[in-house]
Amino acid sequence: MASVDVVGVGNALVDVQARVADSILPELGIEKGIMTLVDDAQQAEVLAKLSGLPLNRCAGGSAANSIVALAEFGGKAAYVGKVGRDEVGQFFLDDMQSLGVSMAGQYADSPTGTCAVLITEDAQRTMLTNLGASATLTVDDIDRSVIEGAKYVYVEGYLLTGETTKAAAYKAMDLAVELGVKVALTASDPFLINLIRDEIWELITGPVDLFFCNEMEAKSLTGETDPIACAAKIHEHAENVALTLGDKGSLVMHGGEAFPIEGLSVKAIDTTGAGDMYAGAMLYGITNGLNWRQSGHLASHAASRVVAQMGARLEKPFQAEEIASILDGVQ
């Protein structure tokens, strides 16, 4: 009997979100709509620019956002990541614990990582990430007993960009395969696909049972221009694929079948964490008795709700009767 539904492995960051004018981006010398890694000094400059603005702070990082989503749906989860011995790190740990998420890895002798999320009027989010303590994750932080009690291990693709974090990610996946635990991987960002395309193909052909990606990532990975062709090509290698298409919905591939999932029309305020929310809801569904089509519908509704508000965490979590209504008639 699995003790948790999903163990997430990823960067432990505290997200600091703020709505800003477009003009602040060229002032900081950053490109709109992408994630940029910054050092301590650069992040301090960014946070200083946000001084006086209304800010939202929460435990974050790509995989952490998905684990939080799963927990808010009522799923059982654990998380593996590293924070510093500082107020920001304690905030992260307390925030996760308040949701019932147990944490492994924990402390490092570095400041806790942060992600400044700058949201412009068009709902685009530009992220500046200072990895801090999260970059010190190693194979020693991957606890066999934590993985042994899970249904899925969910690995954040961003970990593949660092030497020690990549080793930790591979150890988690290797242990999962050894223990009969399924592996899910998120592409994380188009830049990652462009950086290590061959490695991603090897992973989804090998240990990965479920691959999450968005349209841009899928096109970069496959070289195809049509999303359906992208999903089909990936599905030739990965047993399960969830390809998100923004407001056009998503495509779920399972057992040789394609399940088109409709999008919902909402006014987007902040696209931060939409993919993470989708993944968390999908993982909740497939580990709690829903089929793949039902899980896709639930994930689509969750992603549409999160983009209609500020922040990557739902202001109004889904209630049981609401979930039942969403899934009514979905076979």
Provide a descriptive summary of the structure in words.
The protein is an alpha/beta fold. The protein has one domain (4-11, 61-111, 131-327): Ribokinase (UDP-N-acetylmuramoyl-L-alanine:D-glutamate ligase). It is built from 13 helices and 14 strands. It has helices spanning 24-28, 40-49, 62-72, 87-98, 144-148, 163-179, 190-195, 197-205, 215-222, 227-235, 274-287, 292-307, 320-327, and strands spanning 4-9, 13-19, 35-37, 56-60, 77-84, 102-108, 113-119, 125-130, 150-156, 182-186, 210-214, 240-244, 250-254, 257-261. The strands form two sheets. The protein has a nine-stranded mixed β-sheet with strand order 6-5-1-9-10-11-12-13-14, with helices on both faces. Strand 13 (250-254) and strand 14 form a beta hairpin. Helix 3 crosses helix 11 and helix 11 (274-287) packs antiparallel against helix 12 (292-307). The protein starts with a strand and ends with a helix.
- Average pLDDT over all residues: 91
Which CATH architecture would you pick?
3-Layer(aba) Sandwich
Instruction: Tell me the strand order in the biggest sheet.
Output: 6-5-1-9-10-11-12-13-14
Order of helices and strands: EEHEHEHEHEEEHEHEHHEHHEEEHHH
Give the CATH topology.
UDP-N-acetylmuramoyl-L-alanine:D-glutamate ligase
Looking at this protein, list some descriptive labels:
single chain, alpha/beta, 13 helices, nine-stranded mixed β-sheet, UDP-N-acetylmuramoyl-L-alanine:D-glutamate ligase, 14 strands, about 25% strand, five-stranded mixed β-sheet, about 325 residues, about 40% helix
